[in-house]
Amino acid sequence: MASTPMDLDPVDTASPANGTPSTSLYITRTIPSNLPSTSSVPDIIANFRPTKLFKRDEAKDGRSQPYVLSLDYDDPGELLMTSESDEAIQIYKIREGRHDKQLLSKKYGVKLAKFTRNSSSIIYASTKQNDAIRYLTTHDNAFIRYFEGHEGAVTNLAMHPGSDDFISCSTKGGGHFLLDSFKGHLKAYLRKPEGRTGRLAPGEEAAMNGGWNSTNVESSGDCCFTPDGRFVIGGSKQGVVVWDTLAQPEENKTLSPAHTIEDPRQAAVVAFNPRFNFFATADQEVLFWLPDPHA
Prior knowledge:
By secondary structure, the protein is mainly β. It has one helix and 21 strands. The strands form six sheets. The chain has a four-stranded antiparallel β-sheet with strand order 1-21-20-19, with no helix packed on it.
């Protein structure tokens, strides 16, 4: 399955909160020089449709298929990685539209798996033993080192786009708040008309009752920006919603979705490809989305 290369919208230099040129941030990118020009995000954002579904087989012990806890792309946008509730990491090849490999972390568990700048190295948070963050090479499934210090469950990880640094946190919360990253003030609260998905907010607690189910699986992020920084994609109980961050919020700073893209499956986790007009959603299944050229 081919993906559509994407050009980013030009930076609005009138407002530093809307982004700054990458040279000022010293970010080194790996964009190929032979990519063709394509449609901008605002022209196709409402036209995405589900195109391919990946479904894990049921476990041999009779348990249902696991839940996807996180989604992440490598920097070139060629690989998609999931962490799942059965302590497995799955890696998919985007251009070929196929599953590539599975890695297991049965001893420590796994969630919040993120690619580093090197596509063959990842970090992820633990779900068992302790709250350490683990650094792993995917080609031989070997640990490089552990990062210790958290005294509670890690609720989010984010890699720096231009270096080997990353940040982690373990404060609780729910809801989507759009903040001005330079001034720190609230710009809008992104309202979901149908309410939250069936997942727990990061850090929210629930009784496990001896196994995984849709009401006790922690979300790792059911919203994300498109690479142009203008739109936010949010998961819902049936499909996805899209907020336009340039739209005018209501008087109470509430911003309603500009588009709703319906699908019968819950989108509990979402991630937009950094290089292509392509995003993925997941709950127990992984779903690839592409723009409909006939829409």
